[in-house]
Every structure is written in C-alpha cells, then in structure tokens.
Amino acid sequence: MASMQSEAFRIAQFGTRLGTRLEGERARVQLETLLRALPEEAQVRISLEGLEVLSTSFADELVGKALQHVIDGEFGDRTMVLETPSMELAEGIDVKLAQRRLALLCRQNGRWQLIGFRSPALDETLQRIIEKRQTTARELAAELDLQMSACVNRVARLAGLCLIRRRKIGMKGPQDIYELHSIVNG
Amino acid sequence: MRQGLSRLTVETIDGILEHVLENEAAEIDLRSVRFVDPYALLLLSLLVLEGIERDITPQIDWPDTPAVRRWMTSMGFFSDIGDSPRGISTARGGQRALQPICAIADEEAVGHVVDGFHRRLAEQYPLPAASRRTLTAMMIELFQNIPHHSNATGQIADPHGIAAMQDYEDSIFLAIADKGIGIRGSLGLRSGYERITDAQALDAIFRDGLSRFADAGRGGELQRIIGIVRSWDGMFALRSGAALLYFDEHGGDIYDVPRFPGVQLAIRIPLRLFDSGMVDPQDRFQFNGEHAE
Hints:
The structure holds two protein chains of two kinds. By secondary structure, chain A is an alpha/beta fold. Chain A has helices at about 20-35, 55-70, 90-100, 120-130, 135-145, 150-160; strands at about 5-10, 15-20, 45, 55, 80-85, 105-110, 110-115, 135, 165-170, 175-180. In chain A, the strands form three sheets. Chain A has a five-stranded mixed β-sheet. A three-stranded antiparallel β-sheet of chain A has the order 8-10-9. In chain A, strands 2-4 form a two-stranded parallel sheet. In chain A, strand 5 (about 80-85), helix 3 and strand 6 (about 105-110) form a beta-alpha-beta unit. In chain A, helix 1 runs parallel beside helix 2, helix 4 crosses helix 6 and helix 5 (about 135-145) crosses helix 6. The radius of gyration of chain A is 17 Å and the shape is elongated. In chain B, the strands form three sheets. Chain B has a five-stranded antiparallel β-sheet, with helices on both faces. In chain B, a hairpin with a 2-residue loop joins strand 8 (about 235-250) and strand 9. The longest helix of chain B has 21 residues, at about 130-150. The radius of gyration of chain B is 19 Å and the shape is globular.
C-alpha cells in the first residue's frame, strides 16, 4: 500500500485544561472538517501533546463521537489514531471508547497500543499485522496458530473498528480472500 | 428552633431542612453552631432561597461565634442569599475561605470556574501534578452536570447552581449544589425511567452509571468519581429529592432524607493522599478490563 497522507490535530489548540462537552463538540467540528478535507485513505493523528487535563466528557464528545462517525463510514476510508506523551493523559479517551465499545491505536514513546474496547486476542492479532505491514488471514492464522474461522473473525472485528484495512484480492470457493494492511507503521 | 446544634455539616443539615420545609417553620437558631462545612453552607443558602419561594422566609439567628460568621462571610454566603447580618467583625482571624461560593450558570462558565478552583488549590497546596489533574477533571465533570441536568425540562426559572471548596488540617472539602429538577427528574426523561423514586435514581447512577441520555458514551462519570473517592477512603454525599447516597471510610448506603429540590454533592478527600501520588490510574478504571471477544 502506498504511503498515506497524515495530518496532526493538536487538541491543545483549544486550551490546556479541557473540558466540557460543549468544548468537545466545538473541537469535533474542526476535527471532522479536517477529516473531510483530506484525501481518501488519509489519516488524522490526534495529539495530546501540551495538554494538562482532558476530561472524559470532552474525550467522548471529541474522540468518541468522531471515531464513531469514522466507523460508520462518514469519512470514507480515512482513519484516526492517537499520539500521547503519557498514557495517563489518554485515560479519559480510553474509558469513553471502552464505554462505546470502540478502540483506537495510540502511540506513546514510539510504541503503538490499543486503547478502549480491547482484548488480548485483538491486541495480539493487531500487533502482528502492524509488524508485518501487509498480510493475509491465512498467513496470520498459521503464525498465530489459530483456526481460520477464528482468525477471520478477529480480522473482521479489527476492520470493523477501522484499526486495519482489508482489500479483497479474490475468492476461494464461497469465501472472499482479503489482503490485510496496517494503518500505521510499526 | 433552638437545637443547641454545634456542627452544621453534611451529617446534620437535614434536621434544619426538615424543620423549615416539612414543618413550615421560619425560625432557625444557629447560635450554638461552631463549625459549618461547605455542603451545609450551600444547602443553607438554597434553603433560604427555597423558603422565600414558598413564602416561609427563614428567620435565622446566626452563629454566636465570630470566627464562624467571618468564615461564612468570606465564603460569600451572605452575598449569595442577598443578606448582610449585623455584628460581623471585620477583624482578621479564623479560617479563611479556600474557594468562596461560585455560581455555575451555564456550560460556558464551567471552564472559568474550574480554572479558579484549580488556581486556588495550586496556590495553597504543592500537590503533585497528577493529583491536581485528577481533582480538576473531577470538578469539570461535576460542575457541568448543573447546566446539563438541573434544568433539563426547562421548567426551572433558576436552578441556582453553586460550588465552594474549603481545606482543613486533614482534608479538602468540595461542595456543589443546585435546586433544579434533581436526579430523578433528569433520569425520568429517559424512556422506562419515568416513575422511579429518588432512591432508585441514585442507585441507578451509583450502580449502573446511568444517564438521561440513551447515547452509549454518556453517563458513568459520577459512578467513576464515586469509585475514585471510595478508593481514597474519602467521604462522598450525593443528595437528591428525598434520598441521600452517603459513604465514608466506614461504609455507607442510600438513606431517606427530607425532600429538597435539586442535587447537592459533597466530597471530602484526605490530604494525606496527596503526599503519596494518590492512586495508580490502573486501579481507577476497572471496567475497562472488559474483553471484546
């Protein structure tokens, strides 16, 4: 997959202590305007750099709702990820995404991890896709020692949460064959 | 009413409410009172306003102890109720207010109010940054409940949302109060919850993290804050209508109390917690351990 366009969205542009749902809603208007302005398959990196306090309400109004709109397909194939100087700052987002049963890739100190609604199985599968950058469910099933159906289910869930991209590359019998792509560089 | 009451606090204020509202009595004798906490102070302020609305304007004998009256004055109590009692010395002494009574009128104001509380806390206590952040985030969530919920039906002329904070030798005490529609009134707007009682409404917030909004991302904030305060061995009181959720380090429950409009909340946090960096964030968000598969 060709390298994608990526734009940073610094939450600290709205203040260092955030805040109320009203503040979150105003910030989301700008975030979603940015998402719409980017080309297909582009990515927005939400940055928590420079923030002191991020409340759960603000986190939900900005990140939770915007991510739900991404997953609902309102922004085509565009994706969102999070960058934070500390996991403590991302707690409010973690809590609210879990409550909404959504998940987001979050980078801290150069390492990607899943926040929000997660499980060891999804973590394991996602980390392997990130490491490989590009793979197939068959390869993953073999490497993770999984039954094909279990692997396909995990992959479908990751794709449904916009944590990876799937491209149909053919069919085998009644089943579609997908190529799987990481949305971040490992 | 001469009760010989020496402490007007979260534990004793309901006796005053009962006396005034249920007995429709106008006299309140506070002359023996030697200590008032911010929760009782806010409720007393709302009681005066509520009494006026019900044509039972309370006649209050203020505390004899000058230090108590000075503290009430420095907290802005008399300004809040539009009164100025006689005989309050301007001499220094007694406890100063950490954060006087502050109005929370709308969501736009919440950020400024929280900034003020944050600044006063930071000036007075060299709390670790993580502790101040946690407290500030709690205040944001609690303060914005007033514009979000206190007049959700649009039927209240003025919910009179107010907050105050005081420090003590061993604790910080935060109080927030309004006389809006209350938790039952707010949750009752949600389908299926129209006929719940005040106690059931508190229980739904405490156990289920319920909100009046059906949106999956709403609710849970009070439940999380309660969990944090419990983990700190603090005191938490949430009063709405005729029910009070109260607990301290010894335990707690939901209790029947005299009916009063709105929501009143108190949090007392032991100061010793701030020396040790409070709690591990991982302990605070237990429910995030749910598995997606």
